[in-house]
Records
---
Amino acid sequence: MDALHAKYPFFEGARDAVAGASASLPELVAADAPAVDRARERVERALLEGTVEPEAGAFGGSAVDVDARAELLSYPIARILVSLLDSQPAIEKYAAAEASTALDRLRADLERDDGLRSTPTPTVDLDDVLAEFDLSEAVRAEPTRGSHDPSHYRIAVGPYLRLSSPSWGDSWRLVNRALADGAVRVSREELLEALGAAIEARVREGLPFELEAGEGIAAELESRVSELKRLLSERTYAGPIDIVAPELFPPCMENLIGKAERGVELSGPESFALMAFLVGIGMSPDEVVAFCADTSLDAEGIRYQTEYLADDRGTQYPPPTCETLSNYGICHNEEDHMRVAADPLSYYETRVNDADGDEIVDWREEHGGGVEAESGGEAESGDEAGVDDGAATEAGEPVEK
Ligand code: SF4
C-alpha cells in the first residue's frame, strides 16, 4: 500500500489503490475493520473541527506508521458516511475540511528540504499536484534567481476563474490582476489556495451517493451514522446567541484575538476555532472582517472560512470542545472554568446570561458604522456573488465557483 495514497486519498492513483484493495468496502464495513472507525473520526472531526487529521497526531508524524491501509480505505467510507448524513452543509464542510487538511500536508511537503525528502514520509512536489489536476500546462513559474522556489506563477485565465472566487476578496477579481497573454499572475500562496479549491471540488464530486436507507452498506453503517447525528445534534445550537460582547468572551478566544492583534499568524486550528466562535455568536462575515480589521487575519481568509461555517440555519457546527482546544494548546483552562461548560460557545452563553443585560453593549452597535461602510464599499465595487461583468466578459468564461 502506497502511503502517499493514504496521505492524499482523493488522488486518481488512490482510487485505483482502493479498487485494488483485497477487501471490498462492504466487506470491510461488515467486518468493522479499523478503516470504519477512522472514517467516522474523519467525518466527525471534519464537521466539528474543520480538519480530518487523526486525533492521535498529524499524518506524516508517528500516526502514519500506524495503518496506512486503514487511512486510505477510511476515505471512501467517510464519503459514504457523509452521504448518509443527508445534509448538504455537512457535505460542504466535509469537503472543505479534507481540502484544508490536504493543503496543510502539501505546504509541509513543499517546505521539506531535499535532505528530509529521503525520510520514509511520502511527499509530493508542486509539479505532482499540478499534474494531478491537469494544470501542468496551465501554470508556469516565473523565473527565479538561484535555486529558490519561485515566489510567483502565471495561471491561464480559464483555470484561474474556475478555481478562484471573487467572494475571496477584491484582490481575486480579474480586473485587479496583472493579466498578460491569457495568464494571471498569482503568488505561490495564492496558487496553493487555488489548488485547495481544486481539491475541495474533487472531494465534493459525486457526493452525496445515492444509497438505499436500511439496505446493504447503509444498513451496516446505520449505528455509525446515528452516532454522528447524535454528536452533531448535541453540538448544534438552537440559534446563535446573537450578542457580541468581547468583554465576556472566554479566555481562549481573548487569547487568540490578542495573539492576532499582535500580528502573530494563527495556526489552522486556531483560526478555525476563532472563526467558528465569532460566527457562532451571530456575526456575519462582514462583521467578522471588521472585528478582525487590525489583526494578522486577512479579510479574504476570513471570508472564505466564515462563509463555509455559516449556513442558512446559523452555525451548525460550533467551535471545537474545550478538551480539543486544550489538546491544541489553545485552552489553558483559566480558573478551572472547563467545569462550567464543555465548549467556548456554551461558556460565553453562560457569561452573557449571568451578566446584567442593561450593561452589555453589543460591539455591533458601537461599530455598526464601520461595518456598514465596509459593506457599502463592496456594494459599490460590484456584485458580491461573482466576478464583475467586465471581468467575466474579458475572460469570456463563466465563474463556476
Ligand atoms: S475552558 Fe473552554 S471556554 Fe474556557 S478557555 Fe478553555 S476552551 Fe475556552
---
Amino acid sequence: MSAVMDGLKAKIHCPMCTRTVEGLALPEVRLGRSRLKVMPGQKCSRCHASLDAGYVLELLPDTDQPNSKGRRAA
Ligand SMILES: [Zn+2]
C-alpha cells in the first residue's frame, strides 16, 4: 500500500452554483474517523468557482477511478 494522496473521483457539491460536479476527493482520517474532503485547488466545471468550500457527496464507483486495478486488454 502506498501513501495515497492521489485523490478519488467523486461527486462534489458546488456551493456557488449548487450543482453536483465531478472532482477529486481525498480521504482524511481525523480523530480516528475517516471522512472525505475536497482536494484543494479544484475549480467547478460549471461555474469555475473554487470547490474548496464544497463538500463530497459520494465517491464514484471503483471502475471510474483512474488508478483502479481494472483489467486492461494487453
Ligand atoms: Zn459551480
---
Amino acid sequence: MTPVAEMTPVTEVMPAAEWAPWAAWAPSTLSHHDRECCTTARAWFLAMNRSMWRGHGGPAWIAQRFPWGPSRWPLYWCDAMEAEEVDCGAHAALTIEAFQARGIHVVPVQLVQRQEPHHLLHFHGRWSADGASPDWAGEGAAYHEACATLLDGRVEVWDATVSSWLSPDQLRGVRSIAAVRIGGTIATGEVVTWRGLEISLGEWVSPAGVAGEG
Ligand SMILES: [Zn+2]
C-alpha cells in the first residue's frame, strides 16, 4: 500500500518526483529585528564584504567565515553574524546582499541535488540535534540554495556553500542537479540563458529534461 502524500498542488507542466517535495519552498531571506542589533550586524557584514571581496568571481569569504551547518529559521541578522556555521539558505541570502552591494543584479536560485542516500540519516541527526529542520534532506536528493547574477538575459549561478560557479550540465553523481528554479517563486515569463540552457524565471525545471537528455 502506498500512503498518499500530502502535497501542495504543483502547477508546473512537468512535475518531477525529485523536486516535488520542495516545489512550494520560497528562497531563504534573513530577518531583521528592526533594532540596533540587526542594523549593526548587517553593517558589519557589508563592511567585511567590502574589504574581503573586490567584486571579481564570487564572494568566497562568506563560506570561509561561516562554514556550512544547521541554521534555525527565521534567522535574524544579529544571530547569523554570531553563528559559527550557517546553512545554504543563509549562504545564499548573504551572498545576494554581497552581490547587490557591488551593484550586481542577482536573483535567488533553488536546486534539488542528488545525494548519497546513506547521508540522509546523518543530515537528519545533525540538523535535529541543533533544533533545525532537516526537511531539506530527502531520500537520495536534497534541497539547496544558491544565487544567480543576471546580465543581458544571461545568468551565472554561484553556489556560495561550495564557493564555485555551477553548470547545468552537472547531471550525474553526488550534487548533480536534478532540478532548478531561478528567480524565486514569482514566474515573470522572462526567459534567461544559463550556459546555453533556456530557463523561465520562477519555474522549476529539470536541466536534463530541458536539454533533452533525460
Ligand atoms: Zn537582531
